[in-house]
Amino acid sequence: MFKLNRRELLRIGAISVLGTAAGGTWRASGAKPIGNSNQAIFIMLQGGPSHLDLWDPKPQAGREIRGPFDSISTQLPGVRFGELMKHTALIADKITVIRSMSHQFTNHIAGTYVTMTGSNNQPDQDREADPNDFPGPGAILNQQQMAIHGVPPSVSLPNWLSIPGPSNRMPGQYGGFLGSINDPFVIEGDPSSKDYNPLSLRLADGMTAGRLADRISLLGQMDAAARRLEKQHGEKLDALRQSAFEMIVDGRVRRALDLEREPSAVRDRYGRTKIGQSLLLARRLIEAGVRFVSYNDFNQRWDTHGSIFNTYRNIVPPMEQAYAALVADLADRGLLDTTMVVNAGEFGRTPVVNKDAGRDHWPNVYSVALAGGNVKRGFVHGASDNKGGEVTDSPVHPADVLATLWHHLGFSPQTTIEDRLGRPHWISEGKIIEAILS
To answer: Structure pTM?
Structure first.
């Protein structure tokens, strides 16, 4: 009799069944269907975007603080954004900008980790992902929420964030102490590319639905010894195998990935860029039923220690066009009431432009934008001083943003998860930001 051990199941389940490496897993059964039907999109601009040049300009300050860019008016009287934020200025009446974000970490990896997990329990230095890390929100949702048949609860795109090292894994994105079985499902590739066709979401060449069913049956012939060794993961892995089959046969996610179904004008509205088409894809995945979609702007793109003027001329317009299009599109489709959009980096940049015409890391104060759900529309929360260097009103920690996100998704921040030693942890130690909710 043909036998497969658990390691082979994972390998074949992720490669042979799906056609290529799936890159992630999700939980299809065995979890209680708690929470509500709300959804969320988390945009991570990794590298530390400058609050002074995007969300919180200081037009009255000297040029050494103001930087190379002017500011522009927005739909909110008296509220100004950086001059490159022209599309976002037009939808400012649909969003809340928090201008009083703050934490203690100056390192990119540590800043990213606290942004995505809310956890201060870490060194302020480079490190790789560890099995004892606090899990990211997509992994927690996978562990807590029963999936709709054929649709994973959480998806990450268009790549993982990485760090140089043996594992190449940046902490904060994965299942951490909840186990890799709860990692979000990652869909890799540039959706603005003409040949974009993520193989992990289509049948391999020559694979029919009938043959796939036979393959699933074959995979069911599990090695008994391996099943005993990994009994605690048996139900989850069986659920993974069934979910992979359901997603391919059901087709909702595959159809969502087919951007050719979108009118050309809509694709143009988002911008024919990697971030533009990725955020359009995020909207389509939300429509397909995915509860949490994270967009990872790859690896310190926003790290501008030098020549911020030239760099921002290239990277801000595609981002802010795509972000504004996403918020407006969700509103037009009646989805903004149930879909929260978070636009965040891991920290801001120094108030004074440095000798290399750039700005350095600055976690003392920075900005994050939220939209959707019952987040107030057309609102600014908190403030920085006249140099953009310190919080002067209503400080907000990343854990508070996550607590507010969990509240939107129908989970109390005090919902308990257990680590590998059985110790309980709240999914967020932060406080819901009541002041930004309507």
So the answer is: 0.86
